[in-house]
Amino acid sequence: MKEMKVLGEGANFTAVSTGKFDELNGFELPMGEGVTVKGKVFTGAALKSTGMEMSLQTMAPGQESPFVHAHKKHEELYMIIKGEAEFRVDDATFTVAEGSLVRVAPAGKRRLRNTGNTDMVVMCIQYMADVFGPDDTPAGDAIIF
User: Fold this and answer.
1) N or C: which end of the chain has fewer CB within 10 A?
2) DSSP secondary structure of the chain
3) Which pLDDT tens digits describe the chain residue by residue (145 residues)?
4) Distance (Å, rounded) from C-alpha 44 to C-alpha 50?
5) What are the Cα distances from residue 104, in Å, to 41, 75, 97, 113, 125?
6) CB–CB of 123/58 below 8 Å?
7) 52-59 and 120-128 as β-strands: parallel, antiparallel, unpaired?
8) Nearest Cα residue to 93 out of 122, 64, 71
9) How far apart are alpha carbons 11 and 1 in whole angstroms?
């Protein structure tokens, strides 16, 4: 099974590499109850992240998420890096492709299926919902040197 490589670490950063996207199939993610997702890797622990979780996944043509799921407190942001898919959230189904971004609220029941004829690469960032308020801006706490 493939593992991430640490590129560097310091007091204020951690850098890792999963390798090339076309080599993501080397990763395996055990999900419990005999379910293993081939081609998926979570990066949060390796990055020592304290505010989000991120996964990278490759899906073969016709492959779909192993189950429909939702979350209790976390939103997810999906970015289609390569390929095309059918995305289902609750009762809505729509087409996504390279460059598509989809935000799903915690309660949204979601599932993704590769509808293309090539491998698809997906990045999913999971983070706590409802932490930004009306006074926050994208760079609101930036310190300029």
Assistant:
1) C
2) ----EEEEEETTEEEEE---GGGGGG-EEEEETTEEEETEEE-HHHHT-SSEEEEEEEE-TT-B-SS-B--SSEEEEEEEEESEEEEEETTEEEEEETT-EEEE-TT--EEEEE-SSS-EEEEEEEEESS---TT--TTTT----
3) 799 999 999 999 999 999 999 999 999 988 878 888 899 999 999 999 999 999 999 999 999 998 899 999 999 999 999 999 999 999 999 999 999 999 999 999 999 999 999 999 999 999 999 888 777 776 666 666 8
4) 8
5) 20, 6, 16, 16, 11
6) no
7) antiparallel
8) 64
9) 30
Length of the chain: 145
> Looking up tokens 């919902």, which residue turns up?
129
> What is the spatial distance between Cα 73 and Cα 106, in angstroms, rounded to a whole number?
6
| pTM of the full structure | 0.89
In the chain, the amino acid numbered 42 is: F
